[in-house]
Each structure stands twice: as structure tokens, then as C-alpha cells.
Design a protein that fits this description.
single chain; mainly alpha; two-stranded antiparallel ribbon; globular; disordered C terminus
Length: about 180
């Protein structure tokens, strides 16, 4: 269940390095949960309110992945030009799979959120400005429709946060179209 992911695999106090260690199991677990969510075979599981902690955990995984991407560089490898570095993230297909699954799952959840869900997620700490911006960074440009839909719901729930998100979105779109 999604509560296991939230409580066992994605502790808020975990350092970003945990993503490196648990990337295979996280991507597998999230892929199964995504399949359940997408197929709607378990109606109880489909209830968005019950999945708000999972929403927070998915974004936390994406935040940790961003931190890993920023902070971990490897020395040059043979065959690369001198002075060129590549990140662990860029070379790791398991992290790419994890990111893809997280983004797909995040997109599915965000499309179902209502104003009340967003208010609850904000109140309970599953969403905040940092997490919303992380979600947008990771979803654009592939999930532009999801971002637009989420922005409209967020505007209804928290206008100030929606404006902060809007300020981040144009710069993301401009970079993705280049």
C-alpha cells in the first residue's frame, strides 16, 4: 500500500543519498502503485484524499533526485574530453526509470486533485511552495496539460502559492522549448 512507501521507503529525514540506494525498489513499488492507480481496480486506493501522503512522498523522491543530480559528480572517464564531467544521475538508467515513474504517477494524482484536496495537502504539509515548484520542474515540458490543470486548482485553493508557481513556470517553459 502507499502508506508503506511513505513510512518505510521515504522518510522525511532521509538524506538524498537514500534514493541512490533504494532506486530499484522504489521504481518497482511505484510502478505497481501507478498501475493500480491507473487501472482503478482498487476503488479505495483511487481516493485522492487517501493518497495525499503518497503525493508528498513522490515529490520528496523527486527533490532528493534533484539534490543527487546537483551534488554528485564523477571524475572524468576514459573516452571523454579532459575536464568534462558527468553526473551519477545522467549515467544511471535506474534513476531515469524512477524519475519517469514518479512523473507519470505525480501527473495522474495532480489531475484528480480538487480545491479541497489541495487545501488538505497544504494543511498537512504534503504540498508547499518548494514541493509545488519541484513538481512543476520535473513535469515540464512533457506534462504541460497536467501543470496547467494543477495551476488552476491551486489558484482556487491558494492564490499566493499559485502566483509563485506561475512565476516559475514561464522560465521552465522557455528553457524546455530551446
Amino acid at each position: 500500500r502507499s502508506s508503506d512507501l511513505c513510512h518505510e521507503l521515504c522518510q522525511p529525514s532521509d538524506p538524498p543519498l537514500v534514493i541512490q540506494e533504494q532506486k530499484t525498489i522504489l521504481s518497482s513499488v511505484l510502478a505497481v502503485l501507478l498501475a493500480m492507480f491507473s487501472s482503478r481496480t482498487d476503488q479505495e486506493y483511487m481516493e485522492v484524499e487517501a493518497n495525499l501522503p503518497l503525493l508528498g512522498s513522490i515529490i520528496q523522491v523527486l527533490q532528493h533526485m534533484e539534490n543527487c543530480q546537483k551534488g554528485e559528480k564523477l571524475p572524468t572517464k576514459e573516452g571523454k574530453e579532459e575536464g568534462e564531467q558527468s553526473s551519477v544521475y545522467d549515467e544511471d538508467c535506474h534513476l531515469k526509470i524512477l524519475k519517469d515513474v514518479c512523473c507519470e504517477f505525480l501527473s495522474n494524482i495532480l489531475l484528480l486533485l480538487t480545491k479541497e484536496n489541495v487545501l488538505g495537502a497544504l494543511k498537512d504539509g504534503h504540498l508547499n511552495e518548494q514541493r509545488c515548484c519541484c513538481a512543476v520542474r520535473n513535469l515540464l515540458p512533457l506534462y504541460g496539460t497536467t501543470v496547467e490543470t494543477f495551476s488552476k486548482v491551486l489558484q482556487q485553493a491558494d492564490q499566493k502559492l499559485a502566483e509563485a508557481l506561475e512565476n516559475d513556470m514561464p522560465s521552465r517553459r522557455g528553457r524546455s522549448e530551446e
